[in-house]
Amino acid sequence: xxxxxxxxxxxxxxxxxxxxxxxxxxxxxxxxxxxxxxxxxxxxxxxxxxxxxxxxxxxxxxxxxxxxxxxxxxxxxxxxxxxxxxxxxxxxxxxxxxxxxxxxxxxxxxxxxxxxxxxxxxxxxxxxxxxxxxxxxxxxxxxxxxxxxxxxxxxxxxxxxxxxxxxxxxxxxxxxxxxxxxxxxxxxxxxxxxxxxxxxxxxxxxxxxxxxxxxxxxxxxxxxxxxxxxxxxxxxxxxxxxxxxxxxxxxxxxxxxxxxxxxxxxxxxxxxxxxxxxxxxxxxxxxxxxxxxxxxxxxxxxxxxxxxxxxxxxxxxxxxxxxxxxxxxxxxxxxxxxxxxxxxxxxx
Length: 348
Known about the structure:
Blueprint lengths: L3 H7 L24 H27 L1 H4 L2 H30 L6 H34 L8 H28 E7 L3 E7 L1 H40 L7 H20 L2 H12 L9 H21 L4 H40 L1
Antiparallel strand pairs: 1-2
Helix pairs in contact: 2-4, 2-10, 4-5, 4-6, 4-10, 5-6, 5-7, 5-8, 6-7, 7-8, 7-9, 8-10, 9-10
């Protein structure tokens, strides 16, 4: 294993992780060419945290919204996307600015493990949104009464359970970490190739296939029920407008969650299988696909604005925020008027 480390360092590659794939050790302390990309990642991380956190708070603070299984599953997706803004973006930005890994080996291990875990859990959480919609179209009574909470709980915890039980053991078995000294602290993760390939398919390609398959199933089932209802001249058991909103949200969330990270995993597979330098992605391509994958976490909260009740909840929150300062200012004005009147009465 010791002879592998010098070979990696001889190519002046910082590490074998997805954190700084193909980045070169800069001659100056700070890589000037990465400052623009780092600023973009800082803004993206702030947006991811703000948008997903506001989504969680808005839904959980509204009594009507948090009683709906669909909205609880949306909160589950937002929590999984928060991991990117809270953990991945800051570490990635720090390494871009300094051109080296400045943290401990445990942080390096955690970064790539969480990278794969978040990808799988996020996709499975989106899958659960489609599963809930499928069962609602098929039999809405399943989501009523006491079964509502049980069904919602299963769909919420299932992505986390599957991710921790499948993806994490594969990573822990297939990857080793070395901390060496080479023009700064460098973190090198050496994979057993077959485990890294399986981890990629388990965390992304497998869940992506399930997400797209369930999306198609929801679309087909919706149109079957719609056509059947029109032929029989009966009303569907769900409102047509809300049904179309839910269908559009399922399609958008499924497509964004699969399509945006897809180029990154294609580049990763090329890096794993390709033996010629010509077919390995360049430094610029790695930077582009990485930020495209992270953009997904900032786009998902916008998808849920398709629902009218979610938009109304945001409007209510903003209206309360707007009325509060005006109410306080009116209170102060009223207090000043009363005080001035009392003063005049005292003088009289």
